């Protein structure tokens, strides 16, 4: 079983905390790390925008990642949330086993 990190950016810390806790409670992620606020520049509707956002890293299995992505998309306040899945090249065996035990089995 392999694990992945799902990266997602939220409008604010409250949203990141609410959604992060929920998906851990639902066993879609073993854990979530909510990072400090960042400054984002992006193009939206033909304009360059600037916003303060809160990134988060979710740890889950490759088998559950698509369900997590869909759930994050459903719960997220953005029309087009930034949600990406990053493969994990290497980790401790015990960590991988912990993640696998902590999420839903497909």
Automatic annotation (TrEMBL):
Pfam families: CutA1 (PF03091). PANTHER family: DIVALENT CATION TOLERANCE CUTA-RELATED, FI09726P. InterPro entries: Ion_tolerance_CutA (IPR004323), N-reg_PII-like_a/b (IPR011322), N-reg_PII/ATP_PRibTrfase_C (IPR015867). Belongs to the CutA family. This is Divalent-cation tolerance protein CutA. SUPFAM superfamilies: GlnB-like. It comes from Sphingomonas glaciei.
């Amino acid at each position: 079983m392999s694990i992945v990190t799902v990266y997602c950016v939220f409008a604010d810390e409250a949203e990141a905390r609410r959604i992060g806790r929920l998906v851990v409670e639902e066993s879609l992620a073993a854990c979530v790390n909510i990072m400090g606020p960042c400054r984002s520049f992006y193009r939206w509707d033909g304009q360059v925008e600037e916003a303060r956002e809160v990134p988060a890293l979710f740890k889950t299995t490759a088998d559950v990642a698509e369900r997590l992505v869909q759930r994050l998309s459903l719960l997220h306040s953005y029309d087009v949330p930034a949600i990406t899945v990053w493969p994990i090249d290497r980790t401790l065996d015990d960590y991988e086993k912990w993640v696998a035990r902590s999420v839903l089995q497909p």
